[in-house]
Specification:
8 helices
Length: 200
Amino acid sequence: MNTTLFTAATPATRMHVVWDWNGTVKDDLDDHVSALNATLPALGGETVDHETYRTKHTAPIPNFYARLLGRTITEQEWISSDNAFLAHLRAQPVRVREGAIELMTALREAGHTQSLLSLCPHKTLVREVEQAGIGHFFDRVEGRTGPSGGTKAAPLATHLEALGLADQAHRVLLVGDTLTDAVVLGLRLAAARRAHAACV
C-alpha cells in the first residue's frame, strides 16, 4: 500500500474518516460466516458459503435471515440466533485487516482525524479495539448500545454530532465493506446535513 500519496492536510483539505469495524478494520469474514452457519440449522436453514454471505447480506439483520430462509423469523428466533451468533464471535481472536494500521498511521501523520462506528455491541467493540491496540487512532469509538437489528443511518448522525462536526466544515469519509455501508454512504449526506457537516 502506497501511503506516500497522503500530503499534509490543511484546514481546507483535512478529512475525518469514519471506519466500520467488522469486515473492514477487523478481519472477521470467516468468523461471521461460521457464526451464521452455527445458527442456521436451528432455524431450519442450510449453511452458506462466503459468496452467499456477501451477496445476500443486508440490514436490518433479521432481513438477512429472511433472505436466507425464505421466511420471516419470529422475534424469539431472532433473539436466540443473535445471542448464539455473538457468543460464537466472542470466542474468536481479534485480527486486524492487513494494511489497516499502516493506512491509519498515514492518515494520522498527514493530519486527518479518524473515528470508529459499528453496530457491534459497544462493550464488545471497546474490548476488541483495546485487544487490537489501535484505540489511539480514533477520536471516538462507538458501538451499538440499544437493541440489535437496526441500521447505521441514525447512529451516524449522532456520531457526527458527538464529534463536534455540527460546528465545523469537515470532509467526512465513511469506510465500510458491505452493501449496507454503501446504503449508509448514500444516506450520510442527509445525516450530515442534520449535523450541519459537509461530507464527500
